Amino acid sequence: MVSDIKFGTDGWRGHVAEDYTFANVRRCSQGYASYLKSQGLEGEWVVVGHDRRYQGENFASAVAEVLAGNGFHVYLTDGPTPTPVISYSVVAREAAAAVNVTASHNPFTDNGFKVRDENGGAVAPEGLREIEENIPPSEAEVKRTPYSEAVDQGLIVRFDPAPDYISHIEELIDLDPIREAGLKILVDPMWGNSAGWFPRLLEGGSTRVMEIHKTRNPLFPDMTRPEPIPPNIDAGLNATVEKGADVLVINDGDGDRVGIGDEKGTFIDQLRVYGLLAYYLLEVRGERGPIVKTISTTTMLEKLGKKYDVPVYNTGVGFKYVAPKMLETDALVGGEESGGYAFRGHVPERDGILGGLYILDMMVKLDKKPSELIEVLFESVGAHYYDRIDTPFEGDREQKRKRIESADPDVIGGLKVTDLITIDGYKFALEDGGWLLIRFSGTEPIIRVYCETTHQDRVDEILKDGLRIAGLDVDAL
Q1: Closest CA relative to residue 50, chosen from 27, 21, 79, 26
Q2: Among 94, 307, 318, 431, whose CB has the most other CB atoms within 10 angstroms?
Q3: What digits encode the pLDDT tens for the residues 427-439?
Q4: pLDDT at res. 476
Q5: What CA–CA distance (Å, rounded) separates 315 from 270?
Q6: Among 135, 161, 187, which residue terminates a domain?
Q7: How far apart are CA 414 and CA 165, in angstroms?
Q8: pTM here?
Q9: What phi and psi, each to the nearest 5 degrees, are found at residue 156?
């Protein structure tokens, strides 16, 4: 049976051996090859990489065979490679595009197919729709050159992407102060692709880098999925305290997201990390430029934008919206609520390795531990509190949508509603500058309810009101 292949916010993902099969990966690859041809890129080089999930290297080889069969040349990574490294390889190798075989932070049951453009960034929504439209209905319509034959013809070339990426990182940040700071850094790569990268980048000085969950294990023990948020990071937070580390740096399965735990074993949520990164770039490094943010992330950025006189642009959720806006505005930084952040001078793609290095550099330059960095940030923009709940739902999505649209609340969580923003979902602006966002998952029957507020004691009530507006059980909180 042939299954439909639909692209979500960051490519296609499916269940291995159900819809994510070699046949469907080849069909998807043919759709991408046809799309690239329609863009006048036939014969160009395409970078292909993969993560540490089950059969990742073999799925990547299958992608490379199809691209070769369509007349493209392929740079195939010589092992599991972080998404940002693959993205930078597009630029470094002057390639036309990239495919990364990864399901990122999804559960162990899944794998995925991420596509990147000539800038190393996410393909815009209209491009993703064209790729979908070009996917053939059966494997019989797929063009393919067997791997060994493609290698012999020079159509597939194995390469090590690390040297180019490391050289570029050293242009963006001076690593020597971090190496010589005497820090005790714990890194949790969540069994994923960023394992070994921080020790390699920071070796040679008095700073000590330790890793947990660093081997290949596609079952992702100690976590439900390799996503750098609680409870998946609880083992890392506990180890931070046990080992007396100064900081915990966490990357998701493919290394494009970053999470931070402080020296006390407390998680610093993604919105605060984005606030810290923006403050670091604007205040500590003295840089200036626009900030791009998805609608689901922090209003601390608007406050920083006003303070440093830089514009702030809001987009829909997903880097398929963030990356084009960054390129359009020459943004200083772009990011989203999931813990993905991109930086000017690099590629318009999330980079959990560079994001982690910037936090470490901020610690060194300000001589502060992570909990103290939060105090510095809050002195600038005031305290902000965030939480989110994802709830499965049954029934008709359109009925749920109509219910939310017709709610028209005056007050949420005891705070007056000042505006309704519908860029992506339903975002109710609140009188304290905070917000409640209700939006549907693009790939699953899940409603996501998020909030940010300056009132710590009102977080639960705001979320409960959000669940009520969506017609969901408040006991889910």
Answers
A1: 79
A2: 318
A3: 999 999 999 999 9
A4: 58
A5: 17
A6: 161
A7: 49
A8: 0.94
A9: -120, 125
